[in-house]
Amino acid sequence: MSKYGIPSKTFLEMGGWRQPLLMVDRIDDFKYGETGYVKVTKHITYNEPYLLGHFPDDPIMPGVIISEIFGQASEYLSFLTDICDIYNDAFATELKSLRDIHAHIHRDEMLEIIRTRRAQVRGVLAAQNLKFKDIAYPGDSIEVTSKLAFSDAQGFKHYSVTANVGKRLISHGTIINYRETK
To answer: N or C terminus of the chain with fewer C-beta within 10 Å?
Structure first.
């Protein structure tokens, strides 16, 4: 867990999701740039509504929910990258990491950039070639890493994603994100 976390209220303003579809509990790490990535965590509890039927006597995290975590993590990577670019353009200050963002997160101008950008951007996600290697159970914490693999000529961003529980790889593949600005 990073000591450079994003405050809860601001974290909610950054994402377009609310319960019961908020699948990322926190952003653990972020690196800006061509080799950039985001690392997020989802804690699985017995209280998750989708576990009631998947499966009642032996609950496991559904693959489609892991896919949603991948999508949300990838959108956080795009969103944080947008925030870094906008802040740099406005204030000539480079933000390259979660630590850098954390140092500016309480400033009114940063909060305004976050709110304005969230209102502007929407997108759709698609999963491609996801492989499920193992199972996650209530009590586990899923750690997801998303890295931008490439952007294609049509404006789609392709992310390489992995999900681990501890050192155990449970899923990996590609998430495709198309974002548009209102």
So the answer is: C
Q: How many CB atoms lie within 10 A of CB 50?
A: 13
User: Measured at the alpha carbon of residue 71, what is the angle toward residues 10 and 61, in degrees to the nearest 5?
Assistant: 100
Please state, in angstroms and rounded to a whole number, the distance separating the CA atoms of residues 155 and 35.
19
Q: What is the pLDDT along the chain (182 residues), one digit of tens a residue?
A: 678 889 988 999 998 878 878 999 999 999 999 999 999 999 999 989 888 888 888 899 999 999 999 999 999 999 999 999 999 999 999 999 999 999 999 999 999 999 999 999 988 888 889 999 999 999 999 999 999 999 999 889 999 999 999 999 999 999 999 888 87
Name the catalytic one among 54, 102, 158, 172: 54
